[in-house]
Each structure stands twice: as C-alpha cells, then as structure tokens.
Amino acid sequence: MDFDVIVVGSGFAGSVLAERLANVLNKKVLIIEKRNHISGNMYDYEKYGFYIHKYGPHIFHTNNKEVFDYLSQFTEWIPYYHKVLANIDGKKVPLPFNLNTLYRLFPIEYAKKLEKKLIDNFGYGVKIPILKLKEKSKEIEDKDLEYLANYIYEKVFLNYTRKQWDLEPEELMGVTDRVPILISRDDRYFQDKYQVMPKEGYTKMFERMLSSKNIKIMLNTDYKEIVKIDFDEGKVYLFNNEFKGIFIYTGEIDYFFNYKYGKLPYRSLRFKFIELDKKFYLDTATENFPNEYEFTRITEFKHFYKSVNDGNINKTIIVEEYPEKYNEENEPYYPIPKKEYLEIYEKYKKEVSNLNNKFRNIKFYFVGRLAEYRYYNMDKVVERALEVFEEIKEGEKNE
C-alpha cells in the first residue's frame, strides 16, 4: 500500500489524527508505534471485571462537548466522579483542599472563621491557586488566611512537589496553578461537565478508533528503523522509497532532531502493582501521600468501575506511584516546566517551523505532550488533534 500519511505514535494525538484523516479525507495512513500496543499511556486491560491502567490512572473529564461527542463514537461511557484523599497530619482529608477539608483538620470554631474569611475575600464556588491565597493574605494583612496559606503550601503542596519533580516549587513554572483551593463543599477532584470512564476500557476505544481499512499499524517499531529523514536534501524516505505527503509526529521533539540542542529532560514514573484478596483497599480511588513514603499516591482501579461492578469479588488491584528521573529504560511522562528547559524547547520549535519550508513534498505536524513539550490533559490532547485536523483539511482545500 502507498501511504499518504505517516503517524508516529498511537496515543490520543496520533490516533485522533489518523482516524480523521482516514475516515474523513480517505487518506491511507501508516501508524508507527514503538511499544507493543496501541493507545499510548492510556493502555489498559481487563482483570476481575475492571480495567487496570498500565501507565497509571487516567480519568476522563472535560467541559468540551465537541471532544466528548467525538470520543463517544468509539465507546459507551459510565459516569465516574473522581475523589482523592490526602494523608495530612495523620488524617485522611479531601483534595483539592476545600471547605470540608478545613473542618477535618481544624477545630470547628476556627474552621468556621477561616471559611467566612475565604468566602468574604474570594467568593463561594471559586478556585484559588495557593500562591494567590498567600499573596492576598499578606496584602490584607490577615494572619489567619496567611496561616492557612502556609499550612496548605507546606502540608499539601511542598513535599509532594519535591517528590514529583525533584525540584523546588520556585524552580517550576505554572505548577502551582494546578493545585488550587476550592472554596466550596464539592469533594470531587474535578468539576467538569463530563466526567466518565470508557465502559470497556481505553484500549477498546482506541481499537475502534483505528479500525478503518485505510489505517495500517506497525507495533514494536522505532520510526527511524523504516523512515529516513534527509535534512540536507529535504526529503523523507519510507521503506527506502521517497515519501510525499503528511508527516504527523507525536514523539519526543529532541529525538526527532537527533538531540541537536541537547536532550530535553522529563520526569518519569515507576509503578508497583499489588494484587490483594479483599473487596476494596482504599476508601476512594486515590490517596495522596504528600509527606510520607517515597511514593506520591496509591490508586485502586476497582473504584473506577463500581457502577458496573458491585465489588463482590474478593480481589482488588492497587498501584503505588514512584516519581523518578527519565532515562533510556523508562518512559517520559512529564515535560519539566523549568525556564532553562523551555528555552531549549524553543530552539527545537524553530526547527519545526523551518521544516515545511525545507521539505517541499512533506507537511509536518508536531502534536502532543512530547512533541510540544508541554503538559496536556487527555481532553486537551484530543482538542488539539481535532484543531490540527481542521488545519490540514483547510490546507487540502486550498491546494
């Protein structure tokens, strides 16, 4: 088969674009995947009537109806509202830190006092980044809010961040925005309109997404084994034949350019899966451990599927999550949002901009967490892929 499109990687970015190009524009698509399975970090498998996420827990949530409707073509959903407990001062308390958390940790009268001050200064039902709370408390010279801000920062955020990133919080850009204080009684970890899990797991959803006869998939293959990119001539060769078409890349951007400006660092994760002879191990799906142990959290997958599995079977599976440095033997999970690393990425980004000028017969698109060196939630990756597809479609019309 002659291919119109090469897609490197079969996670959300690559799979969404492959599906759209194959089914809407009738393109012949080759997906090249270095792992032995499709679906990227969303890969899961069934055991005891629920699904185990090989690369850590993935909970789908979005406010984007277009994204939700698009994925709904390939799966049925079950409702799931994620709840997280954090172990703070010997107590299990809800996260994000909210008004219920106040009453679990502090004497009732002091909790009432703090609640009133939070609502008076910020309003009810809003999310406040921890640094904003710290700044505001100093600005209005409120010792109670300042104490609360420092308490949350030190007990919930500081040590967790050190474990997760092996850096001090002030070295990271934008991370504190992902740890808000929620001024409400809502114990759900997310407040999005759509909060669901794929009824038959993520892998089955990806299988349906990639079922087109126009899509061929090569597993266990590093794309450089079958694709040669001649940067001097401005040509791409697939199986030693010149390729002319669309090239979608979702892998590490520095690897694509042969580490021209050095390697971009990532944080990785190590997972310890434990099978237990009991109905449930945790009170909720996830418990965080900001200040104790080497792992950051424990997740129990059975909770994700309680609405379709009543838990009568006396088996459960948990996973402990250990952050670690990325190397050649593990997986790159999180681009590190540090200024000096983002400056390196900008150099690679300029190289991407030059590709479409140098390669006359190829259109390159770099999409996803690794290719764009930025953190994406699942729905945002799908949203980005759909945007890129529309860009490609418009380009096809104008040719």
Count of discrete domains: 3
Gross CATH architecture of the largest domain: 3-Layer(aba) Sandwich
**What is the β-strand count?**
23
The CATH class of the largest domain turns out to be: Alpha Beta
Mean pLDDT, all residues: 95
If strands are numbered along the chain, what order do they take across the biggest sheet? Answer: 8-7-19-20-21-18-22
CATH superfamily of the largest domain: NAD(P)-binding Rossmann-like Domain
Which structural class fits the helix and strand makeup? alpha/beta
Shape: globular
CA radius of gyration is 23 Å
Question: What composes the largest sheet?
Answer: 7 strands, mixed
By DSSP (H or I, 4+ residues per run), the number of helices equals 10
Brief digest:
Residues 155-375 form the UDP-galactopyranose mutase C-terminal domain. Its cofactor is FAD. The protein is an alpha/beta fold and 399 residues long.
Features of the shown structure:
single chain, 399 residues, alpha/beta, Rossmann fold, 3 domains, 7-stranded mixed sheet, 5-stranded parallel sheet, 10 helices, 25% strand, globular, UDP-galactopyranose mutase, EC 5.4.99.9, flavoprotein, FAD, UDP-galactopyranose mutase activity
